[in-house]
Structures are given as C-alpha cells and as structure tokens.
Amino acid sequence: MAKQSFLFFFCLLCGAVCKLSARNLEQSIRHYLSGKQAEVGMAVIFNGTDTLTVNNDNRYPLMSVVKFHQALAVADTLTALSETVDHEVLVTPEDLKPNTYSPMRDRYPQGDVTLPLRTLLEYTLQQSDNNACDLLFRLYGGPQATDRYIRSLGLTDFAVQVTEDDMHRDARTCYDNWSTPLEAVRLMEFFLKKPLFAKPIQEFLKTTLMECKTGTDRLPAPLTGTGARIGHKTGTSDRDASGRWTAINDLGFVLLPDGRYYTIAVFVKHSRESAENTARIIADISELVYSSFSKKR
User: Fold this and answer.
1) What is the pLDDT of residue 1?
2) What CATH number is given to the structural domain containing 70?
3) How far apart (Å, rounded) are the C-alpha atoms in residues 8 and 12?
4) Spatial CA neighbour of 150 closest among 66, 264, 78
5) Which of 92, 101, 259, 281 gives the lowest tally of CB atoms within 10 Å of its CB?
6) 242 three-state secondary structure
7) 114 domain-assigned
8) Which residues of the chain have pLDDT under 70?
9) Rg (Cα) of the chain, in Å, rounded?
C-alpha cells in the first residue's frame, strides 16, 4: 500500500513538473515574440502526448508545406493500387511552367522525360519544386483529393484548395491552402506513428523529409552538433503588395539520441521582418523548444 501511495504521488509530482515546464516554455516563447513584426503561431507535441500551442487560433497560409500533405495523399493512392514510388511518369513540356521555382525544369528544360515518382517526390519534399507539385496534383486528383485524404484522418482545421499555378496567377489564393499549427503537427504525428501506407513508401517519405535541402536556417539551425535528427518541410511566399512576406513556415519532427521525439510547426504570417530575420524567428523558437525538452527526463 505504501509503495502504491508513493507511486501515485510521484506521478502527481511528475505531472506538476511537466505542466510547470510547459508553462515556462510558453512564457519564454511569448516573451520572445513580443515586438516582432509578424504574426507567429506554433505548436509542439512531445513524445506524442504533451501539447503546447501559441497563437494557434489563426489560419496560416501553408505555402509549400502543403507538399507534405500532397505526398501523403499520393502515398495513400499508391498503397491502394499496390504501386510503388518506382512507378514512372511522363513529364511533358506543358508541365514545365517557366515563371516559377522548379529545379526539375532547370534539369530537364525540354521535358518529354520519364521519371519515377520517387524523383518527383524528392523534388517536392526536398527542394520544394512547384512544377513537380502541380504535376502530382494533375496525376492524383488535384488539391481536392489531397484535402479529402487529410480529412479522412479526422483532421479539420486546414484546407487544401489550390495549386501552385493558381497561387502564381493570383497571390490572393495563397490563403486558400491553410492550417493551424496544431493541425499540421497532428498530421505529422499520424505520419510518424501510424502505419498509413505500405512500409517501404512510408520509410521513403520519412527519409526524404530528413534529407530536406531547404530551410536549413529554420527548425534545423539550432540542432547542429546536438545529435538530434530532423525531418521537415518548409513553405515560403513572395512579398505581398504591402511589402510583407505572406508566410514563411517550417513543419517537422525531431528525434533525440535517447529515443524521445517531438513534432513541431512554426508558421509566420505577414512578416515585415527580412527573410533572414523571419527564418531566425523560426530557428529561435526551435532552440527554445529543443532546450526545454532535451533537459527533461
């Protein structure tokens, strides 16, 4: 009986310490954000349980973070059709629009090339290629199919409605692909912890996210030399007519050497800071979260 009482009060004490730590982290983040010329929302889930959010009630434009949502919808279709990421796709000249960011177009400027889906997904997830993204939308049901798949997981505080080309033609449509930070983090949790797809496809996507080449000055910046590993997907807009960055984002998961992990999103909307300073906001919040969680045992 004495042992049971000790364990009960020990658990209560641990819970109190965790709540205090989360409260301190939230206060640190809110204090850090005071005076920043941007609207910043963030969410983090520690070890799949403890959740912290700041400014989560707003809608944040996803920008190229939507390519993570799209990749999951593509993976679901591949699994349903018993196909793999080696399935080949013809890239036509019409798929290679000139006035958008596209390393794939730079590599294959004439088009008429056949590429495996794994290459298209590497272009979208690692390099944020807009033409590859819209090609995948054309092949796999458009934004509406991606939206339906994510909703089938039980998520609701988001929308996927437009393509990259739509946003290029009318910048106002950037707001049609949106999410709260917490809903994005919940989606990352599903991806990490549930067998959503055939295992080789799920492992491929995880590895691809961990080899992301964009946004090294965002969530990954403070993790260098710590032994932590990160997979993430960035999103970046142009400046709007008033000179603000519509959105600069990062969504990811962090794996600590001791086996613990957390998922995190930092979304920055309407920033009047420079691109470098906006990325630094994301990196500094990433550092606050890592420092707080890595000290816990």
Assistant:
1) 52
2) 3.40.710.10
3) 6
4) 66
5) 259
6) coil
7) yes
8) 1-20, 297
9) 20
Does a structural domain hold residue 4?
no
List, in sequence order, every residue forming a beta bridge with 114; answer none if it has no partner: 90
| Residue 295 pLDDT | 79
Q: Which domain holds residue 194?
A: 37-294
Which residue in this structure is represented by tokens 């403070």? 222
How far apart (Å, rounded) are the C-alpha atoms in residues 137 and 147? 11
Active site residues: 64
Q: Is residue 207 part of a domain?
A: yes
Give kind and range of the element (H or E) at residue 34: none
Residue 21 has a pLDDT of 76
**CA distance readout (Å), 232 to 113, 128, 208:** 28, 11, 9
What span, in angstroms and rounded, lies between the C-alpha atoms of 223 and 215? 13
Element counts in the chain: helices (H) and strands (E): 10, 10
Q: What is the pLDDT of residues 30-71, one digit of tens each?
A: 999 999 999 999 999 999 999 999 999 999 999 999 999 999
> Which two structure tokens, joined as six digits, stand for 46?
């520690």
* pLDDT in the model for residue 12: 42
In a domain, 15, yes or no: no
Residues 204 and 45: their CA atoms lie apart, in Å, by: 23
Burial class (CB in 10 A: 0-12, 13-18, 19+), 196: middle
Q: Let me know the angle formed at the C-alpha of 97 by 236 and 130, rounded to the nearest 5 degrees.
A: 30
